[in-house]
Design a protein that fits this description.
The protein is mostly helical and 121 residues long. The protein has 3 helices and no strands. The chain is elongated. The N and C termini lie far apart (105 Å).
Length: 121
């Protein structure tokens, strides 16, 4: 076995290529870390509007009360999100839509109930 260095076609020893040295810092010092920037929090009103809106669809007979609450919370949350830059606009929209659907659904139910009672059916 030979312990010679590999050679190129012109019989010169090949020099190993190392990456360029990175910036060196004095002993005991480290590279500066990037500053932590906290992400804006999710709006609590947006979360509340979504939860209340879903409840107005899922839980029977409370949509009459929770539907309008979901709409109010969603409207306030969207306004707050636009001013503060918080997250949660999608949740606020979901709360708005589910609140509207809950209100309309139970309004139709109440109208049909009144018609049924009035006709004596």
């Amino acid at each position: 076995m030979s312990t010679e260095q590999p050679q190129d076609p012109q019989n010169r020893p090949i020099q190993q290529q190392y990456p360029p040295p990175q910036q060196q810092y004095p002993q005991g010092q480290f590279a500066p870390q990037p500053q932590y920037q906290p992400q804006p929090d999710t709006s609590g009103k947006a979360v509340a509007s979504m939860v209340i809106g879903i409840a107005s669809l899922v839980i029977p007979f409370i949509g009459i009360v929770t539907g309008p609450l979901a709409i109010i919370f969603a409207a306030r949350a969207r306004r707050e999100i636009q001013h503060t830059g918080q997250k949660g606009d999608g949740m606020a929209i979901a709360g708005l839509v589910t609140g509207i659907v809950g209100c309309i659904g139970y309004a139709i139910f109440v109208v049909l109930l009144i018609i049924g009672v009035a006709t004596g059916a």
